[in-house]
Amino acid sequence: GKSFVEFAEDMKNTYAPYCRNHDEVITVMEKYKGNPEIREYFQKLINNMREYCNVFDLDALLIKPVQRILKYPLFLGELLRVTEDSHKDKVEVCQAINAVTDVAKAINEYKRRKDLVYKYKRESDASLGEMFSKLNLHTLKKKSNRMRGRLSNTMGISLQTRDENFEREENRFRSLEKAVKVLLKDVQCYMDNVQVRLDYSNIYIKIIYEVKKFKSLYLKISQQHYPQLRSTVEQLVIIPLNKLTVMFNGPIKVIEKRFDKLLDYDNLFKKSKDTGKYNDALDSAKNDYEAMNAQLLDELPKLYRLVYQVFTDCMRCFIQAQKKYLDISLQETYSILDSFIETFNVKHTSVLDRISGLSFIPRGFNPKYDSLHRQDSVKTEKKKRISDTGLSIQSESQKVFVIQQFPRDKLYQVNRNYKASDLMDLCLNQGTVVGVLKEQDPMGNKDKWFVDDGSNKGFIHKSALSLFQSSLNSDPIEVSHIHFLLQYYYSEYSFTARNQNEVTLFEGQVVTVLAKHDLNSNTEWWLVDADGNHGYVPSNYLKAM
């Protein structure tokens, strides 16, 4: 008897889950008996067990623990019957009978709770016709009482019976349910928006012929990378989250039924308290409520942990898939970004200069254009020469600027007078030093190179260029000396001359500093040479090269 009393709690914790799940195990076994591989596997295990004990089949083996726990009270009762009243073990045997009986009751209660929950989960799947077939006067009366209880609870009249532990677990479950649905909605919205963006990109590449490189990039992203993202998110995020939302229906239905049972119990308890009579209906309502409450308290925390794990895994998978897609798309975009920007800058400069030449455009709209236009009007002799030849003359400061800005292998010299044959071409004199920015035009023609002569950027035929050979390169001391004497600076800001003693500068213009003070020795104004124009400019506008 002492051993039964000592191990009663362990027996309850072990046998209760086993007996509670026994019926479901049998159902699953019947389902898998049609599979030859599974049937052969179980038969192999049964044959191995027959070497150690007497086993008929798997069903008989699974029912033995259920039969054993129910036989213990019978064995102990028989032992008590043959034990004399004066025997010292009489009391312990009685205690053992009580303990084992409590274990059997607990197991039955576990089983009843599970059957009750299963009953209401199954009712949630019933058709409308089946639900109407169960309606009767008693059912309508019960639902009417529940409606009054729900109305009272909505108006703030609290229930007589409350379980704070259950309310805490329910709130956690509801919060997680909402988080799962919000994540599912946001992921689907994100995927739809990505698809819409790709669809609009497809429209752009059809109507804008010039974006050939973007078209190839778009096709690679939309036909290769996006389907991979869609497949990964669908398999690892959307499908699991959809399954979770469907699985929530069962627990939600049981929680609602638990609340209905609570309303029934409170209603009957209030009536019995008013009349002073307790009846079987009150006991039945109390048992149903306590059974469902205990079952939910047992299973909701487990469900929360499992759902939370799936939820975090789905979120992690989505973030990783999104990051991979964006990284690949960004790397693909970088490959064409430089050529896009360069082509845009060339065309933007051309259009801006053409707009600045219109009569109705106000002065100051394009300071660089205004400065060059004003210089041309002042230098009449140089302007005449340019109009005769159609060629631009490179100043010494511009030449030194090009030599300093470009590496040796990018420096070229114009070997003949070159006149523009296209809108973006440069007119250059023989001997002009240029730096090569790109060895092709925006259309991919490698016969025309994009160059910089120190003041303008444009295209020139590569046959008009030869590698630059400079005598300065042979004497570093001479180069340093010339650089010191010329003192080249560039303008950090645009400056507009206000009188004939000042000179106009555009942002980035290279100048030669002739004196770092004015006639009154004021160092805030420096005398500079800006492409042949002499005048004063603010010293804080200039920065050494």
TrEMBL record:
Pfam families according to UniProt: BAR (PF03114), RhoGEF (PF00621), SH3_9 (PF14604)
Keywords annotated in UniProt: Cell junction, Guanine-nucleotide releasing factor, SH3 domain
Domain DH: 1-110
GO molecular function: guanyl-nucleotide exchange factor activity
GO biological processes: intracellular signal transduction
SUPFAM superfamilies attached to this UniProt entry: BAR/IMD domain-like (SSF103657), DBL homology domain (DH-domain) (SSF48065), SH3-domain (SSF50044)
Residue stretches making up the BAR domain: 151-353
PROSITE patterns per record: BAR, DH_1, DH_2, SH3
Protein name: Dynamin-binding protein
